[in-house]
Amino acid sequence: MNLSDFDYHLPKEMIAQRPLKNRDQSKLMVLNRADQTIEHHQFFELPTLLDENSVLVLNESKVIPARLKFEMGNGNAEILLIKPIHDNTWECMVRPGRKFDPKTEVTIDSECSFHVKDITPHGLRTIKFYCDDFKDYLQKNGHTPTPPYIKEEVEDPEVYQTVYAKEDGSVAAPTAGFHFTQRVFDDLKKKGIQTEFVTLHVGLGTFQPVKTDNITEHPMHSEWFSLSDGTAERLNKAKKEGKKIVAVGTTSVRVLETCSDSSGKLTPYSGETDIFIYPGYQWKFVDQLITNFHVPKSTLVMLVSSFASFCHPVLNQVQDHSGSKMNGHGFVLKAYETAKKEGYRFFSFGDSMLIR
User: Fold this and answer.
1) What is the pTM of this model?
2) What fold is seen in the domain 67-141?
3) Contact of 24 with 183, CB cutoff 8 Å
């Protein structure tokens, strides 16, 4: 498939710059794969839209203050921590790149300095930081990283966290979880809907554009994840009992599909995944998906398009109400056009959809 198959036009004013004050008041579009219909709801209605035999799987990774801003030479500079290597050494995005040649040594302030060790094939810098307690330094001096399409500074770091964030490590939030509030969790519990948690630390892949026309040639960056023994055991039991596995966000999807074998059984594991899901992928474990509206031509749109077409052997020749044929990504792009007409908010702080 070609990159252009996953493109759409989005007016800039539809990109949400801040979350709603009441997160669960966001819009929730429901895509029904069986009959290709679209419904409109609000997120707090989610418990009523899920079967009581559903199991929600959420990513509890927490965003770290991974952006460092400081003066370097005669101007400003910036480091965005992407992935830890070892012993306060990180792969980083930097700006401006010309100031971060290998062997460069810089003192940021009296508490921290760094040494640029190398440049990776992807243009990242491998940087070693010298600091008594680098984690504490980041908490005091780091800034919350946000995607480039969010132009407003995030003043309160908690705005860019899910309410259930627990494990430090992400440089971008698992944003499908933004809409959950304690009220939603209480209503899920009242209905008897099971919730489980996994961890995937969101990294460079979130920011990395697809640059190849043939999407299969795109190199996916790996991200660290963990699926515990207990969680895998409970999810395998739920799957065997015929419960619906509802992945909250593409990051939860990446964990579950990485750890599942072809028979749909999970194996607990902690490590790196570079799984790339696009139309044609054979889904193994996830039954339903909650996700936001994603950037055009991104790997996230490709994953969602794949899921929208899965479980329907003839979906590649399904007709819409006008009688014309749609494929999986055609259904998703139709949903995106509908969202634009209905005033949905897009991207990280925007609204969401449930694909069932």
Assistant:
1) 0.93
2) Thrombin, subunit H (2.40.10)
3) yes
